[in-house]
Amino acid sequence: MKRHILTISLITFMVTGLAAQNEQDVLRYSFIQTGGTTRSLSMGGALGAVGGDFSTLSINPAGLGIYRSGEFALTTDYSSFSSTADFLGNSRKDNAYKMGISHFGLVIPLGTNNENSGIKGLTFGVGYNKLKDYGQEIYMKGTNNSSSLVDEFVASANNTKGNWDHFSDGLAWETYLIDYDSVLGRYYSDFDYANYGQMQKRTVSTRGSLGEYDFSLGLNLSDKLYFGATLGVQHVYYSEDWVHTEADENNVIGYFDSFTYRNKLK
């Protein structure tokens, strides 16, 4: 008689510190996109050198010295995301669309306007730039004739001699996804006595963004020399939810029906 459907849920909330990061985190948080006003983006970021645009806050704050009057800027964006997953000979493509705010800020002239020489302008700017959007949807599905995620649970249980990882092989043990052979002294699963052939599918949904809050000062000396400084405070939010399911739809594996393993990262 087949076992009932087994559902394993894992919810992990992490405050990511340096010790908890891996190579995926490094790539995810270090690769950024160009932010700024629509005007700056249309010029390929060249206004960072020219000045007189809010994008100079994060690129070249000395460009604030060009300003002669205040400015408020707000930029919305429309993004499309496309992903293709190839799994066991099956290719699936997913598309997603999103609207949001990529930039907003305020520029305020503070200093004098000496027409002759000396300090001709002191300008303060504050604002926000979105540097990366993490929205994505991935879906993959296929029939696996050679392996299962359960194999990893079995290998982990045998390597640790039952000293469970409570988020993987420990869950598999508690839900009878793996068992113990007291004669051979090893852990095993129903897949050890079958030829696989189960359906596998996985969905991965990611959300979040990387942004920077900028606080800048720009100084104009006689329209000949410009100084600037920016304090940038970055804020990152990332969440990932993936669900892995395996099911014996063709009844080729004795005693095994299906299981679902879910992982949440925030």
Q: What features would you describe in this structure?
A:
This protein is 15% helix and 48% strand. The strands form 2 sheets. Strands 1, 2, 3, 4, 5, 8, 9 and 10 form an 8-stranded mixed sheet that branches. It is built from 6 helices and 10 strands. The radius of gyration is 28 Å and the shape is elongated. Residues 1-19 have low confidence and may be disordered. The longest helix is centred in the middle third of the chain and has 12 residues, at 149-160. It has 266 residues and is mostly beta strands. The two termini are 39 Å apart.
In short:
The chain is built from six helices and ten strands.
Supply the key terms.
266 residues; mainly beta; eight-stranded mixed sheet; two-stranded antiparallel ribbon; 6 helices; 15% helix; 48% strand; disordered N terminus
What secondary-structure arrangement, pairings included, does this model have?
Layout: E1 6-11, H1 23-30, H2 38-42, H3 47-50, H4 56-59, E2 71-87, E3 90-109, E4 119-133, E5 136-144, H5 149-160, H6 169-174, E6 179-181, E7 186-188, E8 198-221, E9 225-247, E10 258-265
Parallel strand pairs: 1-10
Antiparallel strand pairs: 2-3, 3-4, 4-8, 5-8, 6-7, 8-9, 9-10
